[in-house]
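Lab meeting minutes (informal)
Scribe: AK
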Amino acid sequence: MKTYLQLVNNILIRLREREVTSIDESSYSKLIGLMVHDAIESVESAWNWSSLRQAVIVTTTASAPSYAITSAGDHSTIFNVINDTSNNWITYKTTECTPAYYTFDGLDSNGDTKIKLYPVPDGVFSLVVNIAKRSPNILADADTLDIPFLPVQSLAYAMAVEERGEDGGMSPVSAKALADNFLSNAIAIDASKHPEELIWEAP
């Protein structure tokens, strides 16, 4: 697992620049840090990575229809919701209908995704919300990635080469093609862990 700082230094080395002890050490290392951050967002959004998947427990209260999925943010993906108390699946629906349905209800004041349940719970239930939670917007030097680092590092390097121009090494087009290859390979490997998500059936 690579840290944010290690990724920045790997790119600086590839650009024939000196390594830094902190991302904030120079204006150029800050720029590379922003490119790494952009690459992380791009790679995390490309697939629902196994390493980002987690279950969040939401406890209902009587007469409250809407619930925030704490710390999920607004870049998370909900796979399913399970009523753990009654031991049944809660189905996604966009309008009110029979019991045991949920829909999206915007964001709470913390920026976390909210879901609304139908019908309104008449008691306390423990819900398990399975999500893919993406990284926060700001990363510290020692933070590590939960996703494969090579696509992130390669994409950030491609961005740096494009911003800098020819550096005597790889062209921006070649660097981007290499990054795309690393990303597609990483997705293919991770997708094999969830084959049920790649099977589509006609209704």
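Next up, CB showed the second protein from the same session:
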Amino acid sequence: MKCRLRNRISNKMPLTITTGVINKKTYLMTFIAWAIIITDVIFGTFLDALGKPLNSSFGVILFITMSITVFFAGLYALRDYMVALRKDLEAPSFFNRLYKATPIFLYALLVIFGAIIVEMVLFSQYSSYLLILVVLISAVAILFFGFRTYKFLSWFKSSVNKRHNIMILAFAVSSMLLCISTTVAITLDIKELVFSRPPSIDPNFPASNSMASRHLTSRELLIHLYGFLVPQVTAIAIAETVAIAFFLRNFKDKIGRATFWALIILPPVLFLTGVFGPQFIKSTGSQMVYMESRFLIFRVIGTAGWIAADFVIAFAYILVAKTLGRQITSSRNKIINYLIIAALATILISPTTNNWITNNSYPPFGAIQRAFVVLASFLFSIGIYSVALSVAQDAELRHLARKYAKEYALLDTLGNAQENADIIRKVVKLIHKHADDMEKETAVESSMLDDNQITQYLELIIREREQSESQR
């Protein structure tokens, strides 16, 4: 597979990077889906300011247009992602079968949205039970996040050098917190939709995005704050940022120190200021006050902050992909696919894990972002998992290369070219065996599967030793 870099100016880095599978149309369709999901989130976040204009024929037409477009774009992009990940999903396991079923989940959600649209057009109302079905199908995201948490922790536990695999641990914590947050949100949503909402919603229903409209007890408000909001924000703004920091550390020399620190500092500052600012101003820890009308400016800052933070983190993945794109080998093509999927998953996961479906507006803005948590969690659990493990496996193979070089006295035979060549071939074969074993265990391909690349790394070790000897 051949990577095609899009260059406007020959001596400049391209804005995006594409492969034979993930192309410009994939980017376009993903960004169309993202734009509609973000619009849906904004309507939910600012329903108190935008609710009346949307509760009209214009709002219904807008909802229908958004629903049709987002499902078309999402399913189109998913087709390309499934092709790119075909080999990763070949192993006959329960979760691979679940991942392969992602298009089925989206088609089921499309049918539900079709039923909602038909009800609104014919009867000027929609059934609350259809929203419950949307929430129940979105619960598959809990399985995606939970399974990836388990896989990350398993890899960290079995790794040779745990100190060098903090990135894996941080991604495990991020996945675990997203799993907890999604579980709490879905549980509370079902409770609200079943016990606190009428069987059908019409234009006269008093929709609201306030916490009071959710009819939660004081205990449930605490669970919402510390079981949904805090884990969600911590996962995205802190745990994922730590993971990104350790990920980018492997490429710091290539992307520059200033870029590295900007990518690490900006996301959590932007996100945490907007979301938790109101909590500190009101000095309360009993419930989320983010939605109070007097904190509208913080909602603006918070929304703009996490959107900007998502793009900063996504840029980090694309930056690394473009760096690798300059030195393509057969194995790096697949890693670039992983990096692109991780970048696009990053901009989708934050908006889809927002929770506005219980606003019960007419039409049901907030349902689109909840429906697409299935796609976002699929890309997140596959893309980021594959990127993290590929980098971790590379680090482990390099560690083994140095270990084998020392064990086979490669560094002590600098004067014997023939003996060095024989030992290098032997070490390359051993490294290749370890790489194959790790790929079978994790279903993730390392970039060091190429014999030439392993040989080049061993030659680099020899040159480093020669320089060290000459300086003594």
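CB comment: The beta strands are 4-5, 17-18, 126-127, 200-201.
No objections, moving on.
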